[in-house]
C-alpha cells in the first residue's frame, strides 16, 4: 500500500495552521445536569450576520476517557474561521474521572451514542434559533446547514456512528446527521482482523461492556452493529467524508481507514483518504510532526468555503459582492478527490 507522499496542491486560501483559543461558551447537553457538556469556540471578530460553519469535535481515549487525542482541535477550527465545538461524552471510566451524575447508567454504547447524537442535535438547534443563541450569550452567527463532525481514534468511531444513521429517509435526516465528516486515525471495525486483541479489545469492552466476550461468538452480532464500515451501505444519505491515517499506527491499524474508504466508495459517498508514511497513534492535530501536519492544510482545502478566512468577515457581513477568487470554492458543490 503506497503512502500519500504527493498530495494535490492545496488552496492558496488556506492559512498556516495555528491554535488560538479566542473565546468559548460551555453549556450542558442535558440541562439541568451539569455534565456532559459541549463547549463552543468562536472565531476572532465573528459577526452575527455571518453564518459560520461548525465542526463538532470528539476526542479519543479508547472509550475509557473522552479526553484523549484531539486536544485543541475545536480551538484550531475556530482559528480557521469556523466555530469549533468540543463534546464531553460518557465512557467506562467517566464516574471515576469526572464524577458525572448523568453517567450512573450502565452499559455503555447507549450512553456514548446518545451523548453524541444529542450534542449534535443541540448544536443544530442553537444554530437555527437566534433567540436561543442570544439567551446563551452567543453573538456569533452559526449555519444550521454546515455542521460537520471530526473524531480522533475512538472519537472517530463515535463520529462515524453519528454519520451513519441506518435506514433514514434521505429527504428527512435526523437532526444529528452531519453535513461533513472528518475521521482522524479512526477506530472503525469491531469485527475486523485483530479486533479481539490488544488495545482494540479494550476499546470494544469499554464501549459494549465486559459481558460482550461471554456472548455467543464473543458478541459478534453486537460488535457488527457498531462496525461503521458495515453501516455505510445502510445509510440513506451519508455526508462527504475526509479520512487520514498513518501507515505505522500500531494501536489502530491503517486498515480501519481503508475499510471505511472502500465502503464509502462502494456506496457512492464522496470520500477522500490521506495515508501518511510515518507517525505513531494519537497525533491529534499533528502540528509538531512535519510529515503529518499537512493534513490540516488538506482538510481546509477540502472544506472549501466552510473555512471562511477571518479577513473576509467584514465584507460578507456588509453584503459585499467583491470576494477574492481565492475563496470562491463552494464546499457544498465540490466532489471530494480520492487520494490513496
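Q: What amino acid sequence fits the structure above?
A:
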Amino acid at each position: 500500500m503506497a503512502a500519500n507522499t504527493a498530495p494535490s496542491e492545496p488552496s492558496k486560501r488556506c492559512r498556516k495552521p495555528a491554535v488560538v483559543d479566542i473565546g468559548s461558551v460551555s453549556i450542558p447537553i442535558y440541562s439541568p445536569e451539569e455534565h456532559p457538556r459541549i463547549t463552543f469556540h468562536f472565531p476572532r471578530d465573528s459577526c452575527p450576520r455571518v453564518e459560520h460553519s461548525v465542526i463538532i469535535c470528539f476526542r479519543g481515549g479508547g472509550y475509557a476517557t473522552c479526553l484523549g487525542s484531539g486536544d485543541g482541535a475545536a480551538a484550531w477550527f475556530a482559528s480557521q474561521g469556523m466555530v469549533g465545538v468540543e463534546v464531553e461524552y460518557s465512557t467506562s471510566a467517566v464516574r471515576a474521572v469526572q464524577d458525572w451524575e448523568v453517567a450512573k447508567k450502565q452499559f455503555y454504547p447507549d450512553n456514548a451514542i446518545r451523548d453524541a447524537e444529542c450534542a449534535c442535535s443541540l448544536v443544530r438547534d442553537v444554530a437555527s434559533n437566534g433567540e436561543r443563541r442570544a439567551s446563551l450569550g452567543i453573538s456569533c452567527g452559526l449555519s444550521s446547514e454546515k455542521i460537520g463532525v471530526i473524531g480522533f481514534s475512538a472519537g472517530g468511531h463515535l463520529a462515524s456512528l453519528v454519520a451513519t444513521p441506518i435506514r433514514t429517509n434521505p429527504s428527512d435526516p435526523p437532526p444529528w446527521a452531519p453535513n461533513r465528516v472528518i475521521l482522524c486515525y479512526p477506530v472503525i471495525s469491531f469485527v475486523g482482523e485483530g479486533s479481539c486483541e490488544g488495545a482494540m479489545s479494550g476499546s470494544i469492552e469499554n464501549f459494549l461492556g465486559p459481558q460482550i466476550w461471554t456472548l455467543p461468538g464473543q458478541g459478534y452480532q453486537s460488535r457488527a452493529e457498531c462496525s461503521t464500515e458495515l453501516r455505510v451501505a445502510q445509510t440513506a444519505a451519508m455526508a462527504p467524508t475526509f479520512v487520514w491515517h498513518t501507515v505505522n499506527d500500531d494501536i489502530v491499524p491503517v486498515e480501519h481507514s481503508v475499510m471505511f474508504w472502500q465502503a464509502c466508495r462502494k456506496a457512492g459517498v464522496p470520500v477522500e483518504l490521506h495515508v501518511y508514511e510515518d507517525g505513531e497513534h494519537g497525533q491529534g492535530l499533528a502540528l509538531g510532526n512535519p510529515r503529518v501536519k499537512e493534513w490540516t492544510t488538506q482538510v481546509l482545502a477540502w472544506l472549501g468555503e466552510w473555512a471562511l478566512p477571518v479577513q473576509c468577515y467584514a465584507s460578507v457581513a456588509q453584503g459585499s459582492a467583491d470576494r477574492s477568487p481565492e475563496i470562491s470554492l463552494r464546499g457544498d458543490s465540490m466532489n471530494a478527490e480520492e487520494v490513496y
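Q: And what stands out in the fold?
A: The first strand starts at residue 24 and ends at 28.
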